[in-house]
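User:
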Amino acid sequence: MAKLTLSDLKKLREEKIAELNPRNMENKDAQVIVGMGTCGIAAGAKATFDAFVQELDAQGLQNVAVRQTGCMGLCSSEPTVKVVVSGMPEIIYGRVDSETARKIVNQHIIRKLLVNDHIYDRPAADIVH
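Assistant: Predicted structure:
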C-alpha cells in the first residue's frame, strides 16, 4: 500500500467533508429524514437515501439536509421518509423508492406541492392505547 502525502490527506479530508455536507444541518432550511431501521433497510431505504442525495445534487440544492433515523413505526409502509420544509406541514411519505424520492425533491421541496399518493402518517395518539 502506498503512503499518503500531506496533500493526499488534505484532499481526502475535503472530499469526505463534501460527502457529509448533505447531513449537516448548518445553513439548511429543509430536511429529508429517511427511516433506516432494520425494516427500512430491508425494504430499500439505502437506495432511497442515495436517490435523495443524488437528486438534490442534480438540482443544485444545498439548503436541504438529508439525515437518517431509526424505525418510524410504519413498518408496513417502508421505506418511510419525513420531509420538513419551512412554511409547510411535516409530512411522512411511505413506500418511497428512488423514483418517488426524485418526485418528492422536484414536487415537494422545489415546487412546494405534496406528493399525495405517498402520504402516510403515524396513528393519532388518541386512538392508540
